[in-house]
Write a structure and sequence with these properties.
This protein is mainly α. It has a single domain, classed as Orthogonal Bundle (Arc Repressor Mutant, subunit A). Helices cover 47% and strands 10% of the residues. It is built from three helices and two strands. Strands 1-2 form a two-stranded antiparallel ribbon. Helix 2 (26-35) packs across helix 3 (43-55). The longest helix has 14 residues, at 5-18. 19% of the residues are buried.
Amino acid sequence: MSANRDERLAHLIVEMRQQPYQRMTTGKARRIYARLGLNTPNPGTVRRDLNAGADIGLLDPHGPDDGHFYTLNLKGGAR
């Protein structure tokens, strides 16, 4: 199944809402995509998906460039 960024991000948000304090990394997102039967995009595409979630206020970015992760924004949702 091919999915666009909005669809992939929606799947990640649903997964993250099940465990709202989990850390989402590129690798974890790729495993979720694979489990859901979505085409597993390359790591760069997954990073752009996660960054898009942060840009619209659904995710909060954390950490240095070499240990970056995201958490669900529990303070107010999308911008």
